């Protein structure tokens, strides 16, 4: 009888310990679910999160932190490893190629207002002033390199080989370079730093702003295709989780809209995604005042 009682007590203690452990695990999981760390690259998207996304998530009970990376490589790697829960810095073509090249399971949630490419210069006041051997710097990662080359083609400086897919073009695919410009691909973050030496620089909007450049000072600004507008991205396994749904709800909210349209914020002049234009009956781009 005594042995039976002992076994019963032991089993009861074990059951209690297991239940307590499960409770602690569930509490910790719940706490983790209320913490969202966003990976960002240099530029305005950290401010967009801080001003337009973070307050809405905090109202829903989340703790929101930013993790800033210095390039376009680390944010997706960190996200895939679980070091962050979301990121905001990239467009669809970049996401698809990077995820494929590195075997990452990542998923887009929603597009946000986006800063376009700009052609900047401290050497010339017009593209018509460019001459032979003038240097043009631009991002070297494949998707943004092809994007910049298409932009240069659109403004009439080069022609890409029509036999290839222009979305995959590199400097080797330039069929015509009438002026004789020197095309120099560099790591995207370095491109703004070449303005003292290069004739023109094709600068990604986030890095332009991070470098203190005003988009309105560009010689020419890009008109963005929808798939080039920046995305909030999460791990594929998290796409249908509550925190991901809450991010989308906040981005689609009136409070987000008010912050974006506030003329004191740099993103008021960013090009808007199609859902935003339709929802708020807004122009795709508002000129900065």
Question: Keywords, please?
Answer:
289 residues, alpha/beta, D-Maltodextrin-Binding Protein, domain 2, 2 domains, five-stranded mixed sheet, 38% helix, 18% strand, globular
Provide an overview of this structure.
There is one protein chain. This protein is α/β, with parallel strands linked by helices and 289 residues long. Strands 2-1-3-12-4 form a five-stranded mixed β-sheet, with helices on both faces. The chain has a five-stranded mixed β-sheet with strand order 9-6-10-5-11. The chain has a two-stranded antiparallel ribbon with strand order 7-8. Helix 2 crosses helix 7. The radius of gyration is 24 Å and the shape is globular. About 7% of the residues have low confidence.
Indicate the low-confidence ranges by residue numbers. 13-31
Head-to-tail CA distance between termini: 88 Å
Helicity level: 25-40%
CATH architecture verdict of the largest domain: 3-Layer(aba) Sandwich
Biggest sheet statistics:
5 strands, mixed
Total helices: the number is 9
Task: Describe how the helices and strands are arranged.
Blueprint: H1 2-33, E1 35-40, H2 45-59, E2 63-68, H3 74-81, E3 86-90, H4 92-102, E4 106-111, E5 118-120, E6 135-139, H5 142-154, E7 159-160, E8 174-176, E9 182-186, E10 200-203, H6 205-210, E11 220-221, E12 231-235, H7 242-251, H8 254-261, H9 274-280
Parallel strand pairs: 1-2, 1-3, 6-9, 6-10
Antiparallel strand pairs: 3-12, 4-12, 5-10, 5-11, 7-8
Helix pairs in contact: 2-7, 2-8
């Amino acid at each position: 009888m005594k042995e039976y009682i002992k076994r019963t007590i032991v089993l009861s203690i074990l059951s209690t310990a297991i239940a307590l452990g499960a409770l602690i695990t569930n509490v910790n999981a719940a706490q983790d679910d209320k913490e969202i760390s966003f990976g960002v690259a240099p530029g305005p998207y950290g401010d967009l999160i801080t001003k337009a996304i973070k307050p809405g998530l905090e109202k829903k009970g989340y703790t929101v932190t930013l993790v800033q990376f210095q390039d376009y490589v680390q944010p997706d790697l960190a996200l895939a490893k679980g070091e962050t829960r979301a990121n905001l810095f990239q467009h669809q073509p970049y996401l698809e190629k990077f995820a494929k090249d590195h075997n990452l399971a990542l998923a887009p949630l929603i597009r946000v207002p986006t800063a376009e490419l700009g052609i900047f210069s401290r050497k010339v006041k017009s593209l018509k002033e460019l001459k032979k051997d003038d240097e043009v710097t631009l991002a070297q990662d494949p998707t943004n390199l092809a994007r910049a080359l298409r932009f240069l083609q659109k403004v009439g400086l080069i022609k890409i080989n029509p036999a290839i897919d222009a979305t995959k073009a590199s400097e080797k695919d330039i069929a015509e370079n009438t002026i004789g410009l020197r095309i120099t691909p560099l790591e995207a973050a370095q491109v703004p730093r070449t303005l003292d030496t290069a004739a023109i620089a094709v600068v990604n909007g986030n890095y332009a702003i991070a470098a203190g450049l005003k988009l309105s000072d560009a010689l020419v600004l890009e008109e963005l295709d929808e798939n080039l507008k920046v995305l909030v991205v999460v791990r594929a396994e998290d796409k249908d989780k509550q925190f991901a749904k809450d991010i989308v709800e906040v981005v689609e909210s009136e409070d987000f809209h008010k912050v974006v349209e506030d003329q004191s914020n740099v993103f008021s002049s960013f090009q808007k995604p199609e859902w935003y234009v339709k929802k708020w009956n807004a122009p795709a781009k508002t000129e900065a005042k």
